[in-house]
UniProtKB/TrEMBL annotation:
The lineage of its organism: Bacteria, Pseudomonadati, Pseudomonadota, Gammaproteobacteria, Enterobacterales. Pathway: Cell wall biogenesis; peptidoglycan biosynthesis. ATP binds at G116, T117, N118, G119, K120, T121, T122. This is UDP-N-acetylmuramoyl-L-alanyl-D-glutamate--2,6-diaminopimelate ligase. InterPro entries: Mur-like_cat_sf, Mur_ligase_C, Mur_ligase_C_dom_sf, Mur_ligase_cen, Mur_ligase_N, MurE/MurF_N, UDP-N-AcMur-Glu-dNH2Pim_ligase.
């Protein structure tokens, strides 16, 4: 086990610290082992400073404790032979400490950060998958898990803790990874989790209403996302310049290296260093899409089984990223058809003489609207829409999503989607408040029963969209996390082995 001197770790912020070696950095007192450094900072739900006694009893080598008083910074004392050091604005500097502790692993990797309301996971996984096909060892961090392609370990957060991020980077570096794709959430940016991550490329997908329970309003939400491009270490920036915020940011970033990604929109390229623009999109009935494009790298045509206008943007953002990384345009064009859909993102289950299921993570108004639009344009069939809204989350989006589902579907079933400690009836009523034609809406709170009802009520040419949970394999009811998977329910109904 590698140990590091506490004095070295804290210089130049704190001087005169006694010589002491630490073996690990920990922010969760439950995981502490003798010799660890416990970093005690306030969190959203719990305050790490309340667990200092526990850390002492577990024989931590030292404790760093956040203080709001600048004049208290650097003061230390001993409690039962454990040194406790006060650190001003510690939570803002955990990423920096972790980066130093793990010997700056990001400097030896090319790291791609992807942020936006929707599309983060898809773009992250597309770059991961595409680069792997072309022979690069690529690691990834995000909603679907952390690890290498087809070997991901589950995670609780889209963007992990600052300590885990640096630990992960050091581990994949040891495994000869060359590239890392990382989803960067607004929470992760506000909470300084990626402050010391050197991004070679940062990508913006879009910005629409979500997480207003945390950010309060769209202005604060936009400011959180903008942090990645304005205050973090980024060499190149790729923006969806069709997005209303992307257009504004592109002009604000005129002095930076930017790539504008657009669909049938040549105007934005004059504001960017490089650009890529789709000139024509063809959709076939065999679940294929063909994208003809022009760009700073040349012209071409890629094909994919990912359907929907939003996936055209996702594919182009990924293509632009890989071109910036030095992959040849010819190789990318010839391998595009090998890309498979991302788990829980417009994932299709189609069998002869049975309804077609589509599972998608859409849990925001914009995502639900775009998903239903994609189904309409591609299939032009009768659509069932099964969805719910998360408890203890943004309540303002619930009636908006209800209105979208009602307007764009032939039949709507409102069900549960992680109600948590909120009453399911209240969530459902909030959704219903946005609906006018109640006759086309059913309320079936049990998600499994809702999907089964749609399956047995649908005709073989119907489409059943199950929105909201995507890849998730848990349903959170009160404080219980219950095993549950939309995909497993669908496969059982279709008589397929799991």
């Amino acid at each position: 086990m590698n140990k590091i001197c506490l004095k070295y770790l804290l210089l130049p912020w704190i001087k005169n610290i006694p010589k002491k070696y630490i073996s690990n950095l920990k922010m969760d007192s439950r995981t502490l082992t003798p010799g660890d450094l416990f970093i005690a900072v306030p969190g959203i739900k719990k305050d790490g400073r309340h667990f200092i006694v526990q850390a002492i009893n577990k024989k931590a080598a030292a404790i760093l404790c956040e203080t709001k008083k600048k004049d208290k910074h650097g003061i230390f004392k001993y409690i039962k032979n454990v040194i406790l050091i006060y650190f001003f604005k510690l939570s803002e500097n955990v990423s920096l400490l972790a980066n130093r502790f793990y010997k700056e692993p990001g400097k030896r990797l090319k790291i791609i950060g992807i942020t936006g309301t929707n599309g983060k996971t898809t773009v992250t996984q597309l770059i991961n998958q595409w680069s792997t096909i072309l022979g690069t060892k690529t690691a990834t961090m995000g909603t679907l898990g952390n690890g290498f392609y087809n070997s991901l370990q589950p995670t609780n957060n889209t963007t992990s803790s600052p300590i885990f991020i640096q630990l992960f980077l050091s581990k994949v570096l040891e495994k000869q990874a060359e590239l890392v794709t990382m989803e960067v959430s607004s929470h992760g940016l506000i909470q300084h989790r990626v402050k010391e991550v050197p991004f070679y490329i940062a990508i913006f997908t879009n910005l629409t209403q979500d997480h207003l329970d945390y950010h309060e309003n769209m202005e604060k939400y936009e400011s959180a996302k903008w942090l990645l491009f304005s205050t973090h270490k980024v060499k190149k920036i790729i923006l969806n310049a069709d997005d209303q915020y992307g257009k504004i940011w592109l002009k604000k970033l005129l002095n930076f290296y930017t790539v504008a990604v657009t669909i049938q929109n040549r105007k934005q390229k004059k504001y960017s260093t490089k650009w890529i623009n789709a000139t024509n999109i063809e959709q076939n009935n065999n679940n294929s899409i063909y994208i003809t494009f022009e760009s700073s790298w040349g012209t071409g045509r890629i094909s994919s089984c990912l359907i929907g206008h939003f996936n055209v943007t996702n594919l182009l953002l990924s293509l632009a990223c890989l071109l910036e990384l030095g992959y040849s345009l010819s190789d990318l064009i010839h391998t595009s058809e090998k890309i498979i859909p991302v788990q829980g993102r417009m994932e299709l289950f189609s069998y002869v003489k049975k309804p077609t299921f589509i599972i998608d993570y859409a849990h925001t108004p914009d995502a639900l609207k775009k998903t239903l639009n994609a189904i309409h344009s591609h299939y032009q069939r009768y659509i069932w829409c099964i969805f719910g809204c998360g408890g203890e989350r943004d309540q303002k989006k619930r009636p908006i999503m209800g209105a979208i589902a009602e307007k764009m579907s032939d039949k709507v079933i409102i069900t549960n989607d992680n109600p948590r400690n909120e009453k399911e009836k209240k969530i459902i009523q909030d959704i219903l408040n946005g609906c006018k034609n109640k006759e086309k809406i059913l309320i079936i709170p049990d998600r499994k029963k809702a999907i089964s009802y749609a399956y047995f009520g649908a005709k073989y040419h119907h489409i059943i969209l199950i929105a909201g949970k995507g890849h998730e394999e848990k349903q959170i009811i009160q404080n219980r996390s219950i095993n549950y998977s939309d995909k497993k329910i669908v496969l059982n109904l279709l008589g397929k082995n799991i």
